[in-house]
Amino acid sequence: MAKVKNNHVVVVLDMSGSMDTIRTSVIDAYNEYIKSLKKMSTRGRDMLFTLVEFNSDNITYVYNRENITRVNLLNIDTYVPAACTPLYDALGKTLNSVDPKKDKLLIFIMTDGLENASVEFSRKAIISKIKGLTDKKVKFEYYGANQDAWAVGMSMGVPSASSFSFVSTDEGTRDAVLSMSVQTVSYYGGE
C-alpha cells in the first residue's frame, strides 16, 4: 500500500520594493490565509507549510516544511519590501528544494512585478522545472498584481487556468488570497 503523502503548501512571496504599496494588504490577506490553513489542519490531516520571501537582497526560507500549527502571522517587522525582483532565482531555489515523492504539493507564486534581477536561473530553466514537477502532479498557481498574469504565468510554464490577475488594492489583494484558500480546499479535497 502506498504511503499517504503530506499535504504541503508552498508560498513564494515577492518582497521587492514595489510590493510596499500593498504591504499592509499583503500582510492582512496572508494572515487570513494562514488562519484558514490552520483550520484545515484541525480536520484530521497535518498541513506542512513553506514560505519563501524574495527580493534581490535575499531569498529567505521563513518556514520550510513546517507544521502549519507552528507558523506565525506576518507583521510590518517581518514583511519589509525592498530592492528588485529575482523571480526566477526564487522559483529555481524553491523548486529544487521540494519533493513530490514525499508531499502532495501546491505551490503559490505571488508577485506584482516581472523578473528583473535573477542571476542563477533563466526563464528556460524555470519552464523545465515547472514542467517536470507538473508531470509529477505538483499543482502551481500564479498570482500577478497589475499584470497579465495569464501571459506571465504561461511564459514560465504555469497553465493559464492556474493564473490569477489581481489589482494591487486592499480589495484586490484580499480577493487573490480568498482564491488561494478556495484553490487549497479544492486541491486537498476539503481535508
> How big is the Rg?
15 Å
- Calculate the mean pLDDT score and round it: 93
The low-confidence parts are none
Number of helices: 5
What does this structure look like?
36% of the residues lie in helices and 24% in strands. By secondary structure, it is of the alpha/beta class. The chain has one domain (6-187): Rossmann fold (3-Layer(aba) Sandwich). It has a 6-stranded mixed β-sheet, sandwiched between helices. Strand 5 (139-145), helix 4 (149-155) and strand 6 (163-166) form a beta-alpha-beta unit.
Features of this protein?
Rossmann fold; globular; 6 strands; alpha/beta; 191 residues
Write the topology of this structure:
Elements: E1 6-14, H1 23-41, E2 47-54, E3 59-67, H2 87-97, E4 103-111, H3 123-135, E5 139-145, H4 149-155, E6 163-166, H5 170-187
Parallel strand pairs: 1-2, 1-4, 4-5, 5-6
Antiparallel strand pairs: 2-3
Helix pairs in contact: 1-5, 2-3
